[in-house]
Design goal:
signal; about 475 residues; Purple Acid Phosphatase, chain A, domain 2; 6-stranded mixed β-sheet; 5'-nucleotidase,  domain 2; globular; alpha/beta
Length: about 475
């Protein structure tokens, strides 16, 4: 006798609720269909469901996302870095208190004396016919952030070596919920033959029909739930083993919306607007925001960053502010809309040569006109770099391009051998946007504050006469 096992999954929603009513419809209908056929079925999320870029996630600090997952009927979830490192310890500690699903994150450890009641290292479930399924979850080890928030993420391979052998003894099927990224998933599949399925996320990869490595099928459904996925396993009861593995993803955009979910989202948005409606300042005139020019608000925000981090200098890109700030009452909702990024302040140590190279790079069209997606940035374009604590004298080549003539620190030309503490957005500590920042051996991250918290402070304390 053969039996099919169905897993419907989502990953990397990032609180992008545009497709959520369609996703809810897909998941609910999938479950109803399988239950009507007496087929085993589970709903799974792979993390980064919460992203404070959205007012609902910001106002409810992720708990509304959990409510939405409860309403759909999820069975299991793991956490992504957006759940893990964008909120204070207590907020994550209680994020899933009301979850109707089990949260599995094998490599998340609290550095306080209290482990959240919702946190499981592994879980087991089984079908009515007795097929035992073991589930493990892993998240990406951003310990530079996690440990500042009193959490620790252990090495994924270390956890798999600890748990997979035991799961093999206690389960017929092993499922890994992985918020590690495709490269890591592929390496795990090569090393751990006993894992049957890896449902992945984090790197926003879309595997339309899965990828087979050794005994493992790997799948993922992109980002923002424009797609959702299905894994189908065929179990042979006579042979007591899986004889077939399939994975598909489905486009959510053309599907009918779940009207109850749409109504819940509307209600949550009204409540979020009210919760974020606390006034910060009353402006007599609007504040201009320009991505390729110096503006008063960006200069004062960069000054605030330097002062708040007690750095020698600071630099921020003007593209961080997405819109003008209108005259009249300015609320936290306005600040969130204008600066939605989950980006923290960071201080790096640089010598004068490295700081000079950063200033030079910041003037290039390649950087200022870069359309960036990722690294926490939720805007359109990097924009002009604004400095505090240093004065940059520039001139123009015959072709009109700007270049650095002299950089002054405390009125004197910059000492190339001197060491400086430079504050900036943590965005630049990743990738190769500003290599000198990324490769700095000293990086001090400031959490859980976002740059928008500094923007609110700047408006309240430095723009009161505006």
């Amino acid at each position: 006798m053969q039996e099919k096992l169905y897993f419907y999954y989502t990953n990397d929603l990032h609180s992008n609720f545009d497709n959520w009513p369609q996703v809810a419809s897909f998941l609910k209908n999938g479950r109803e269909k399988r239950e009507a056929e007496n087929q085993a079925c589970w709903l799974v999320d792979i993390g980064d469901h919460v992203d404070r870029v959205h007012p609902i996630a910001e106002a409810f600090m992720g708990k509304a996302n959990v409510q939405l997952m409860n309403d759909v009927g999820y069975d299991f979830a793991t956490i992504g870095n957006n759940e893990g490192i964008t909120m204070a310890h207590e907020d994550l500690h209680h994020l899933y208190d009301d979850a109707d699903f089990q949260v599995v994150c094998t490599n998340l450890y609290s550095l306080t004396n209290e482990t959240p009641e919702w946190l499981h290292s592994t879980v087991h479930t089984q079908t009515d016919s007795g097929i035992k399924i073991g589930i493990i979850g892993l998240t990406a080890p951003f310990n530079n952030f996690y440990e500042l928030l009193d959490w620790h993420i252990s090495a994924p391979v270390q956890e798999l070596e600890k748990h997979v052998a035991h799961l093999k003894e206690t389960a017929d099927v092993i499922i890994l919920m992985s918020h590690l990224g495709l490269t890591e998933d592929q390496e795990i599949a090569r090393r751990f033959y006993d894992i049957d399925v890896i449902i992945g996320g984090h790197t926003h990869h879309l595997l339309r029909s899965g990828e087979i490595i050794n005994n493992t099928i790997i799948t993922a459904a992109g980002k923002h739930c424009a797609h959702a996925g299905e894994v189908v396993l065929t179990w042979d009861h006579n042979r007591k083993q899986i004889i077939d593995k399939e994975a598909d993803v489905y486009d959510m955009t053309p599907l009918a919306k779940d009207l109850a979910t749409e109504q819940i989202l509307n209600d949550l948005m009204i409540k979020a607007d009210d919760m974020l409606g606390k006034p910060i300042i009353e402006l007599k005139r609007p504040i201009n925001v320009k991505w390729f020019q110096h503006t008063e608000i960006m200069e004062k925000l960069t000054d605030t960053l330097k002062e708040w981090t007690q750095a020698d200098a600071a630099l921020l890109n003007a593209g961080l502010l997405l819109d003008q700030i209108p005259a009249g009452e300015v609320t936290f909702k306005d600040v969130h809309r204008i600066c939605p990024h989950p980006i923290n302040p960071c201080v790096v140590e640089l010598n004068g040569d490295e700081l000079t190279e950063i200033v030079r790079s910041s003037l290039t069209k390649d950087l200022t006109e870069l359309k960036l997606k990722g690294f926490g940035f939720r805007g359109e374009i990097i924009g002009k770099m604004i400095f505090s604590g240093i004065d940059v004298e520039t001139s123009q080549h015959d072709d009109g391009t700007e270049y650095v003539k002299t950089i002054y620190y405390h009125g004197k030309p910059l000492d190339t051998e001197q060491s400086f503490k430079v504050a900036t957005a943590d965005t630049f500590t990743f990738g190769r946007l500003l290599p000198e920042v990324a490769k700095s051996e000293v990086k001090d991250y400031f959490v859980p504050e976002f740059l928008r918290d500094l923007l609110a402070y700047t408006l309240r304390h430095k723009m009161s006469n505006h």
